[in-house]
Specification:
membrane, about 130 residues, transmembrane helix, 4 helices, transmembrane, PLD nuclease N-terminal domain-containing protein, mainly alpha
């Protein structure tokens, strides 16, 4: 089994480089057209030259620790002023909705109290309380 390991590693690298080249957008490929890179990988894959050249020189690599070049960096939500502003706006909307609900609840409670004082039924389909004789 151990004698097949080098062959399997070469095959795995060959397949990885081929799939990586095929899936890479044309804008991220350096030097040669994509078709030429695919041919280099396939023709020189058995001796590892094609896949290694592709991995080293064929694709524009992004920096390991940072953001891609030319793009905005990621900002944590608690450091993002736009996100914090949107939270304040949502909070104001929620507070306004809560005040409306509370006012509606007070109005309904007042209506129920008035109905009870007038001797009218307390709700739909309910009979007035029996009078004591």
């Amino acid at each position: 089994m151990l004698r097949y390991l080098p062959f399997l590693l070469v095959l795995a690298l060959w397949i990885y480089a081929f799939i990586d080249c095929v899936n890479t957008p044309e804008s991220q490929i350096r030097g040669l057209p994509k078709v030429v890179w695919v041919l280099i990988i396939l023709l020189f894959g058995e001796v590892l030259v094609g896949p290694i050249v592709w991995l080293v020189a064929g694709k524009v690599r992004e920096p390991a620790g940072g953001a891609p070049r030319g793009r905005a960096t990621w900002v944590a939500p608690d450091d993002n002023p736009e996100f914090l502003r949107s939270l304040k706006e949502e909070n104001k909307k929620d507070e306004a909705l809560l005040k409306d609900w509370e006012a509606d609840l007070r109005r309904r409670e007042e209506e129920l109290r008035r109905r009870g004082d007038d001797g009218t039924p307390n709700g739909p389909g309910q009979n007035p309380p029996p009078s004591k004789d």
